[in-house]
Design goal:
Elements: H1 6-12, H2 17-20, E1 75-76, E2 87-89, E3 92-104, E4 112-117, E5 125-129, E6 133-140, E7 149-151, E8 172-178, E9 184-189, H3 196-201, E10 206-211, H4 213-217, E11 228-236, H5 246-249, E12 259-262, E13 265-266, E14 268-272, E15 276-283, E16 290-294, E17 300-304, E18 309-316, E19 318-321, E20 326-332, E21 340-344, E22 350-356, H6 379-382, E23 386-393, E24 400-401, E25 413-415, E26 421-427, E27 437-441, E28 447-451, E29 466-469, E30 474-479, E31 485-491, H7 494-498, E32 502-507
The structure holds CU-O-CU linkage (C2O) and copper (II) ion (2 copies).
Length: about 500
């Protein structure tokens, strides 16, 4: 039985009036002002809603984004373990990364079937240093095909783990690369055609940290698990028996859930020292974006984005992370009055209640923030003509890039290694308004030149590998590849990617 959404039924029945009059351009994923509960499917008879025509052209199921539940704060947040290298010397390091399945006690006393890397759920943190030669032995212990993709890593196309690099069950492969890019919080996840959304949903995602001289000498918190904390945000829907049933929850416009996991922990709370703490936030969700702030509206500083440090910390009270984006922030908890502060979403849903170990603040030795990076978009680059145009369009199964769907045998673009080109990315607004598309390019860290002709906000001034555009928005980005090979570029709503909202570029 084909599942159809309430929204697509409304469309099919021609009852859409109210929806099409909404101004979608100002709202991102959310239909602000609409009552979400009235869009809830629960208690409705799905079978009676099957129109039987298989017509998804009018699907606008993204309008029915599931509302998140607040964290009850009854599980202490844990952090992925840092992966032990198989071998290490001063300029090389090697690891084994194994995709596997197992069960995880996400809910007390209940076994949930999950996927993970080197463990049953999610993955470890892999740490490498700039300049090092890295060898990774990849093993597929799943009962299905997978690939190992290094999101944000500048790596030869052949090692990048796109949909061409399938490992069958039981197969293994060794990849090798030299780290040429600066300190950054990157991540890894599978990329098999049509299956990425499901495999990530079940737990395949891990962090990859690059360290360099700059990150080691900067006066910022850097003790992993103590004051330098990964925060992997993923919303999930569980079945009544607490399983992750992707086929059941899947939404062609991006699968969302009512339950937020951080680092795989449900209802998390964080207990930390009352001092400056660095949070490395990764949005590892299939489609949901988060705009986060503290419930006391305290300011904090963003120090890094996807591909490394900003030039200067950006002081802000809220931060938006679209799917696949990373943001590193430093929060000064000595400034909090009382013993609790909460990290919350734009809808004031509690993401993470935070408590302090000491009631008194530790003396704050950290100096004023120095200069972190020296990025600049050269005038020469800014003045370059646009040589690649990317038009993101559609919804549901009808998503396209430049009116085309992914074809693994078609190369859409070519670009010369080490040559900077200006790409223009446009999220094409349609009559229904459209939706945000987080656009990602493999194998490069780009710089945002402008958004709708204007200078980008500070939060987007660092190196980026993903940029989220609202319907109608246009961005110019400066793109350079340090390596050769074939790379994907795509929307990072995983279901859009799986539906073919992806193209490939050959770097020669
Ligand atoms: Cu996060 Cu194609 O990647
Ligand atoms: Cu990627
Ligand atoms: Cu998309």
């Amino acid at each position: 039985m084909k599942k159809i959404t309430l929204a697509s039924m409304i469309v099919s029945l021609g009852l859409l009036g109210a929806c099409s009059q909404e101004d979608h351009s100002s709202s991102d994923h959310d239909m602000k002002g609409m009552d979400h509960s009235s869009m809830n499917m629960e208690g409705m008879d799905h079978s009676s809603m099957d129109m039987g025509d298989g017509n998804s052209t009018m699907d606008m199921s993204h309008e029915t984004i599931t509302k998140l539940k607040s964290s009850l704060g009854n599980h202490e947040l844990s952090f992925p373990k840092v992966l032990k290298p198989d071998d290490k010397d001063s300029n090389s390091i090697s690891y084994t990364v194994r995709a596997q399945q197992g069960t995880t006690e996400i809910f007390d006393g209940i076994k949930t079937n999950t996927y993970g890397y080197n463990g049953n759920f999610l993955g470890p943190v892999i740490r490498v240093e700039k300049g090092m030669k890295v060898t990774i032995h990849l093993v597929n212990d799943l009962k299905e095909d997978t690939t190992f993709h290094w999101h944000g890593l500048e790596i030869p196309g052949n090692e990048d783990g796109g949909p061409h690099k399938v490992l069958k069950p039981g197969q293994s492969e060794t990849i090798q690369f030299t780290v040429k890019q600066e300190a950054a919080t990157l991540w890894f996840h599978p990329h098999p055609m049509h299956e990425t959304g499901k495999q990530v949903f079940k737990g395949l995602a891990g962090l990859l940290y690059i360290d360099d001289k700059n990150s080691e000498t900067l006066n910022i918190p850097k003790t992993y698990g103590v004051d330098d904390l990964p925060i992997i945000l993923q919303d999930r829907t569980f079945t009544d028996d607490q399983q992750l049933d992707y086929d059941h929850t899947m939404n062609e416009d991006g699968t969302t859930g009512d339950t937020l996991l951080i680092n795989g922990v449900v209802d998390p709370k964080l207990t930390v020292d009352r001092k400056k703490v660095r949070l490395r936030i990764l949005n590892g969700s299939n489609m949901r974006s988060y705009t986060l702030h503290f419930n006391n509206h305290m300011a904090f500083q963003q120090i890094a984005g996807d591909g490394g440090f900003l030039n200067k910390p950006d002081t802000t009270q809220s931060i938006e992370v679209a799917p696949a984006e990373r943001a590193e922030v430093i929060v000064d908890f000595t400034k909090v009055k009382g013993n609790e502060v909460k990290l919350v979403t734009e809808d004031n849903v509690t993401v993470l209640p935070i408590h302090f170990k000491e009631s008194k603040a530790e003396p704050n030795t950290a100096k004023a923030m120095e200069t972190f990076n020296h990025l600049k978009v050269l005038d020469e680059v800014k003045n370059k003509k646009v040589t690649k145009t990317v038009k993101l369009a559609g919804m549901g199964k009808n998503v396209t890039i430049n009116d085309k769907k992914f074809d693994k045998n078609r190369i859409d673009f070519t670009q010369k290694q080490n040559e900077t080109e200006v790409w223009e990315i446009e999220n094409v607004k349609d009559s229904m308004g459209g939706m945000n598309h987080p656009f990602h390019i493999h194998g490069t860290q780009f710089q945002v030149i402008s958004i709708d002709g204007k200078e980008p906000p500070k939060s987007l001034s660092g190196l980026k590998d993903t940029i989220s555009l609202k319907p109608g928005q246009k961005a110019k980005i400066a793109v350079k590849f340090q390596h050769k090979g074939v790379y994907m570029y795509h929307c990072h709503i995983l279901e859009h990617e799986d539906n073919g909202m992806m193209g490939q570029i050959k770097v020669y």
